[in-house]
């Protein structure tokens, strides 16, 4: 969908915002942190996670996922298959890295005392993947693509027409 660097940034910001809000809420609820953290602490955690997720998506997972997704054997002319392949690759990469990020923040908050790290990491990956994949494929992906097409792409297509008519 995005074709320019600016569009990629807008699309990434929109996708990261939606995914971070839902996934962090899911993890906060799962770990019983909603009532234990103040609103300011929650906001700080959301902002910090958003920044990390956006940087990871932009510079690590996004480029790798694009290479992997479009090296898979499928009909590249079918846009839906391309979107699904890219979304799945993005979810895998983001879940692997952001689950590690979540564990690091849990470690510094002394929430992993006495827990086996590898088992906890694998459990966190499974839990996050089971939420992130359907969220991305069924809700957030279509919603962000619709908003992007309507408000970002639509404006850039209409703007030159207005200038030519004047």
How are the SSEs ordered, and which strands pair?
Blueprint: H1 5-30, H2 39-69, H3 79-108, H4 117-165
What's the pLDDT, averaged over the residues?
91
Largest sheet: none
How would you describe the shape?
Answer: globular
Oligomeric state as shown: single chain
Cα(first) to Cα(last) distance is 29 Å
Compute the CA-based radius of gyration.
18 Å
Protein name: DUF2798 domain-containing protein
InterPro entries: DUF2798
Keywords: Membrane, Transmembrane, Transmembrane helix
Pfam families: DUF2798 (PF11391)
Structural features, described:
It is globular and about 50 Å long. The protein is an all-alpha fold and 166 residues long. The chain has four helices and no strands. It has helices spanning 5-30, 39-69, 79-108, 117-165. Residues 157-166 have low confidence and may be disordered. The protein has one domain (11-165). α1 packs across α2 (39-69), α1 (5-30) runs antiparallel to α4 and α2 (39-69) packs across α3. This is DUF2798 domain-containing protein. Keywords: Membrane, Transmembrane, Transmembrane helix.
């Amino acid at each position: 969908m995005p074709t320019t660097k600016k569009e990629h940034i807008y699309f990434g910001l929109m996708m990261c915002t939606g995914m971070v809000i839902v996934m962090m809420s899911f993890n906060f609820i799962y770990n019983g942190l909603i009532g234990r953290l103040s609103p300011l602490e929650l906001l700080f955690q959301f902002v910090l996670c958003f920044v990390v997720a956006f940087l990871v998506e932009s510079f690590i997972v996004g480029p790798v996922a694009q290479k992997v997704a479009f090296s898979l054997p499928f009909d590249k002319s079918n846009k839906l298959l391309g979107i699904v392949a890219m979304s799945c690759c993005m979810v895998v990469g983001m879940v692997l890295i952001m689950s590690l990020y979540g564990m690091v923040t849990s470690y510094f908050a002394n929430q992993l005392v006495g827990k086996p790290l590898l088992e906890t990491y694998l459990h966190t990956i499974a839990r996050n993947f089971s939420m992130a994949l359907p969220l991305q494929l069924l809700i957030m992906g279509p919603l962000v693509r619709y908003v992007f097409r309507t408000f970002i792409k639509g404006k850039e297509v209409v703007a030159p027409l207005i200038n030519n008519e004047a």
